[in-house]
Amino acid sequence: MTGHLPAVLKALDSSRDAALKRLFEVLRIPSISTDPAYKQSCKAAAEWCVNTLREIGFDAGLRETAGHPMVVAHDGPRNIGRKPHVLLYGHYDVQPPDPLDLWVSPPFEPRLRVEPGNGEVVLARGAEDSKGQFSTFLEALRAWKQVVGELPIQITVLLEGEEECGSPSLPDFLTQYGKEISCDLALICDTVQWDKDTPGITLSMRGIVGAEVVLTGPNRDLHSGQYGGPALNPIHSLVHILSSLHDSEGRVTVPGFYDHISEPSSDRRQQLKALHFDSAAFLSDIGLSQSAGEKGYSALEQLWMRPTCEFNGITGGYQGVGSKTVIPSKASAKLTCRLVPGQDPDEIVASLERFIRSRAPRDCGVEFRVNQRHRAFAFDHNTPHVAAAAKALQEEWGRPAALMGAGGSVPIVASLNQKLGMNCLLVGFGLDDSRIHSPNEKYNLTSFYKGARSWARIIDQLARIM
Amino acid sequence: MTGHLPAVLKALDSSRDAALKRLFEVLRIPSISTDPAYKQSCKAAAEWCVNTLREIGFDAGLRETAGHPMVVAHDGPRNIGRKPHVLLYGHYDVQPPDPLDLWVSPPFEPRLRVEPGNGEVVLARGAEDSKGQFSTFLEALRAWKQVVGELPIQITVLLEGEEECGSPSLPDFLTQYGKEISCDLALICDTVQWDKDTPGITLSMRGIVGAEVVLTGPNRDLHSGQYGGPALNPIHSLVHILSSLHDSEGRVTVPGFYDHISEPSSDRRQQLKALHFDSAAFLSDIGLSQSAGEKGYSALEQLWMRPTCEFNGITGGYQGVGSKTVIPSKASAKLTCRLVPGQDPDEIVASLERFIRSRAPRDCGVEFRVNQRHRAFAFDHNTPHVAAAAKALQEEWGRPAALMGAGGSVPIVASLNQKLGMNCLLVGFGLDDSRIHSPNEKYNLTSFYKGARSWARIIDQLARIM
Questions:
Q1: To the nearest whole angstrom, how far is the Cα of A246 from the nearest Cα of chain B?
Q2: Is A127 on the interface with B (CB under 8 A)?
Q3: Facing B407 at nearest CB: one of A192, A229, A318
């Protein structure tokens, strides 16, 4: 390794309190991208990122979009001669914090607490997903610039503000600014480690299609005694349609849903087995005893290599205290399909909409809104940058990095790959027990500190092998 | 008729403005019985009733219950010699007004407006159900007392405060105060006319069973990417269970649901036909073109003589703006079954609960709460008091009263009949287009004014034939 790395790591260790203070600053900004009420907070979070990157020594600014702005930062003028050129990606927006009453402390007032098994953790919405995560590479960049004055590779930073609502503005942004952010490789910090002591490199992620279905029956809410019987009840139609989306084997019944999906190769199945994934522990951690997913596949295969159709929300009629004998005029549901390689989001949307409309009774109005659609991806693990990252992570964590898949979706990856032909490397320091998207989201301090050290090492490794 | 009636009717006609002012007073009190937040408002409405009855000349007071108080009023000391003794029943509580945003004016700020076909109407929550309705007999009593000084029959008034939430305190009240309110006959004003120009006497009503089902899957909300597949989704389980409650013929599939129900007799079917019910108009008024109910029965049969299982509310997961990729920990639904004679509420509750629990997956927690259960009833129409009411109504409205059934439930009727062996006569002046339980509930002024006149006549008729 270069002579610089030890000093950089030392700088990171000695600036932990300042780093934590910076993380708390950005966690206090409620940048909930899916809710228009928080537009200004998203802007504020973006500006915090710009100022922080400038402080580090980057040429940073906002790029306006139809939605929340993108943050783009370069380490000085673009220098084609200087190889390699790497893009670091993260997102500054967060999920809504509700249900609020289940938080032990306010979601946007970060605090430290000790959790059995995890030691000290940061508690806040976005603590891991993804403010804690992108802060790891911001701290690594800061240390390199402070200690060495310059970075061993050329780096551009992209921080998005709409990852949690399906990245609606990303396609237009890539069309307009693709040239500016196009690099040899994208490093993305939005994924998990294998476990709290074992790092991971994520090589595949599921895609996603998100939709909302609104059914309308009577032209107004009705008295269930006065109209019950003849009157169409949209909740009845909704549960009938939703329940027909899965068969008794847990398979999705939408025609063509599984076309073009290849079965896990026996090699890959062996790799998965070799990870000794404890699915019983995985399930019992969330209070369950058996997998509710597609029959014939292990929990890990269901998570990484099989598509789903999930109901994320359902609403209709009276939901207050006590009872109300009403037949509601409307009922609606939010659903998302997780996709795997081979599935075309547009085709899935089209057949899902056909499936739902064809099952609605004649008097039932159907509104079908699509709010996100992104392909799945899977990268080859036999590449020099995977090897570089694996080496750096092993040196930091003292054990080999697991080559993982992921059940979630990071829209940017498929887009960078398909639109700009960029290779992506997903290294993150999240953990499955971090309650992201749930009340009391946390980020282990070890993830935060060793994550920053890991990025310092990865940058160093990339400098020498690419 | 006695010499008094014309003067009484004249007094009613000349006191319309004062009567409307009194109605507006009580409509301004948000006595929502199902929501504990409105306990004080319910008390206030009860006290308004007591003061009004005292003003009329009744000996009125509250009877405390475990829930909202009952209002009981006597016309002077109980006089066994004086026949007949009639109980007038109404309720002062109302349904929740939500969804609030659909009201054209605040639900508890009553106002008049003109509606095509209905003329002037009172717009407010409770305008018809049931503050407008019980005000018709309060005004009739007031006029009789004012003009004559005494009533031609002995009358006791009972105003309940929990009718809209299933009358939970009624059984205990009847046990404790049954003797005090026990009469020869109960007159109940909580039903509809046949149409705005034709009065009606209701001889049968459906019973009701109300329940709430809460399903619990994971021990916390989960990220649908991180856990989607293996994790049990309680919305999925809920829609699966609810959708299995009906078959493709619209019949309820709960075992034993239709046992002990007798088919409509050909006589009764003929009576219904003779009413020339316009089911196309009934449906198009609520924006529908065809009956969604049980196959093989007319809309009127479905409403009056067949049971239902309705979903009144469903909720789970994210319901805010935009999307949230969550697998919720809980999902729940509120449902009510309308019962017909022959169905035992306790048996229906038991088999409904068995049905639901038996279909929940192993890891799915099931909470089943029953919030109301009341039998259906059907009275014989060959009785002197039905004849008396029919005569009085025909004299007021100039056309014969329709002998009707009703799809709704008035718990008091079954209770008075079973617990105190009382016969009941249901005469109301509501209309199917009054949007009770919905936004913009209204009561026709003709219903209010001619309703009061009708009660004055019914009291007069009962005095002479009983």
A1: 9
A2: no
A3: A229
Is B111 inside a domain boundary?
yes
Whether residue A166 contacts residue A208, with contact meaning beta carbons closer than 8 Å, is answered with yes
Number of domains in chain A: 2
Domain that holds residue B236: 207-261+307-373
> Does a structural domain hold residue B122?
yes
Q: Is A422 contained in some domain?
A: yes
ipTM of the shown complex: 0.80
Nearest-CB residue to A226 (from B306, B362, B408):
B408
Distance CA B74, CA B155 (A): 6
Q: What is the DSSP string of A275-327?
A: TT--HHHHHHHTT-SS--S-TTS-HHHHHHTS-EEEEEEEEEE--SSS---EE
Of B230, B325, B362, the CB nearest to A437: B325
What chain B residue is nearest to A319 in terms of C-alpha separation? B313
Residues 154-183 in A contacting B (C-alpha not used; CB under 8 Å):
165-166
A354 and A431 in a common domain: no
What string of pLDDT tens digits covers the 466 residues of chain A? 458 999 999 999 999 999 999 999 999 999 999 999 999 999 999 999 999 999 999 999 999 999 999 999 999 877 656 678 999 999 999 999 988 999 999 999 999 999 999 999 999 999 999 999 999 999 999 999 999 999 999 999 999 999 998 889 999 999 999 999 999 899 999 999 999 999 999 988 999 999 999 999 999 999 898 899 999 999 999 999 999 999 999 999 999 999 999 998 888 888 888 889 999 999 999 999 999 999 999 999 999 999 999 999 999 999 888 888 899 999 999 999 999 999 999 999 999 999 999 999 999 999 999 998 888 988 888 889 999 999 999 999 999 999 899 898 887 888 898 889 898 989 999 998 899 988 999 999 999 999 999 999 999 999 988 5
User: Which residues in chain B are contacts of A318 at CB distance < 8 A?
Assistant: 96, 98, 312-313, 334
| CATH code, B327 | 3.30.70.360
Residues 6 or more apart whose CB falls under 8 angstroms from that of A274 comprise: none
- Residues A228, A356, single domain; the answer is yes
Instruction: Give CA–CA dist A206/B294, Å, rounded.
Output: 44
Longest Cα separation, chain B: 83
Same domain, B318 and B441: no
Q: Which of B327, B350, B373 is the C-terminal boundary of a domain?
A: B373
CB contact A432 to B (< 8 Å): yes
CB contact under 8 A, B324 and A95: yes
